[in-house]
Amino acid sequence: MSTTRQGAQGAVRVLLAHRERIAWHHHTFHQFIHPLRGVLQISTPAGDWIVPPHRAVWVPARTEHAHRAYGATDMRALEFDGPVDPLGSAQPSVLAVTPLLREAVAALTDDTGLTAGQRRNIERVVLDQLRRVDVLRVHLPLPDDPRLQDVMALLREDPAEPRTLAELGRAVGASERTLSRLLRDRTGMSFPQWRTQLRLHHALTLLAAGASVTETAVACGYSGPSPFIQVFRGAFGTTPGTYAREDATEGAAGPVRNGEAQVTSRD
């Protein structure tokens, strides 16, 4: 991992290798995290957020979190003091990144020799964009009930697992009705919604690693590319093929100076 820090407000660029991790930590400031290239998984005790290019995640101050990269990832992060909170959210949120916001973040995190006045102007653009940004529901909640955790462990191990909730319930010693009620109570999702979210998260990591659309569809439990493409487009506004091509061509990494870094590992 290599890190560059720009400016007093904390504009940071971090290059992460495939499957590289940033260990659990928290900040006293809010953080806006955006991968110009690659896919980031942001984990908290409450669940996971998957962040592809054209998306970002807002991490409120003092939120325990960890990062994991899928594909060579060019991560950009902006830091905001506690009173500067354009989202006002107590939980992490995935955000749609407009082209203007993307370019502003890139300018602040690149070593471009900005003057103090230029930097302040761009920071105002970022704040204005964040006040009107769309918040997306791509959170994968991880409930604390042991029965649900057992079911979810089976699905996370193999997202293509075809068993119904009733069949999975028999495997963990709980009824379908109980599991369905618990899932609604703890996550606000139905079982099909949760499984679809899990499969979409898995799909993004596979595409970032270079898997084809067909390979990804099969690995995520779809009968073929067509139903997978339909679900993917509904969630992300683009097809998986287009997403993979854009990820491969955008955000090529430039030179980065060594700087401060969290402890990381790769597996």
Q: What are the salient characteristics of this protein?
A:
267 residues, alpha+beta, Arc Repressor Mutant, subunit A, eleven-stranded antiparallel sheet, 9 helices, 11 strands, 40% helix
Please give the structural blueprint:
Blueprint: E1 2-6, E2 11-16, E3 20-25, E4 30-44, E5 47-51, E6 55-59, E7 65-80, E8 93-96, H1 99-109, H2 116-131, E9 135-136, E10 139-141, H3 146-157, H4 165-172, H5 176-187, H6 191-208, H7 213-219, H8 225-236, H9 240-249, E11 264-266
Antiparallel strand pairs: 1-2, 2-7, 3-7, 3-11, 4-5, 4-6, 4-7, 5-10, 6-8, 8-9
Helix pairs in contact: 1-2, 3-4, 4-5, 6-7, 7-8
Helix content: 25-40%
Q: How would you sum up the major sheet?
A: 11 strands, antiparallel
Query: What is the name of the CATH architecture of the largest domain?
Result: Sandwich
Q: First CA to last CA: what distance?
A: 14 Å
Count of extended strands:
11
Shape: globular
Rg calculated over all Cα atoms: 19 Å
SSE-based structural type: alpha+beta
Order of helices and strands: EEEEEEEEHHEEHHHHHHHE
Low-confidence stretches: 251-266
Classify the fold: give the CATH topology of the largest domain.
Answer: Jelly Rolls
Strand content: 25-35%
What is the CATH class designation of the largest domain? Mainly Beta
> Mean of residue pLDDT?
86
